[in-house]
Amino acid sequence: MSDVNKIFVYGTLKQGECRASSWPRIPLQIEPATTAGLIYDLGAYPAMIPGAGIVLGEVWTIEPSGLAATLKVLDQIEGYADEPDDLYVRRTITCTLLSGATVEAQTYFYARTNWLSTREPMEPDEAGLQSWSSLRRK
After folding, report:
1. Residues in domain Gamma-glutamylcyclotransferase AIG2-like (predicted)?
2. Beta-sheet pairing, 129-130 with 46-61
3. Could you say which architecture CATH assigns to the domain 6-119?
4. pLDDT digit string, tens, across residues 72-112
């Protein structure tokens, strides 16, 4: 397990989304951030894969003593068990905070990329950012 205590989220685990209350620990800090990747809208949730786009999300900083418990819950939510048939895989990435500082964070990439072959990634906004929100559907 990585000891990186920052987690980049871009979908249902963000503030205001349906799984925001699923975090087992109160974060030390939540900051808007971007990272390289492509987001696909799968309806109830997004899928991010590595790519040349820029994804807008949040970096949640977790108390190091609560990291293992937090990752255990998030791994379950994201369908990650380090097995070949996982829905997502957890990886360490580089994120850029709004201040311009870069940080290492863990995130979940969609593992079933063959399911995305008939889909197009989300269109970036005017600023060139891909951002998913369940509020777009209401």
Report:
1. 7-116
2. parallel
3. Roll (3.10)
4. 999 999 999 999 999 999 999 999 999 999 999 999 999 99
For residue 9, give the nearest of 46, 52, 44 by alpha carbon: 46
Q: Which residues have C-beta within 8 Å of that of residue 25, sequence separation ≥ 6?
A: 62, 63, 66, 69, 70
Q: Report the distance separating Cα 104 and Cα 21, nearest Å.
A: 24
pTM of the model: 0.94
- Looking at residue 96, its amino acid is T
- What are the structural domain ranges in the chain? 6-119
Going from the C-alpha of 62 to that of each of 2, 39, 65, 69, 132, the distances in angstroms are: 13, 24, 8, 10, 23
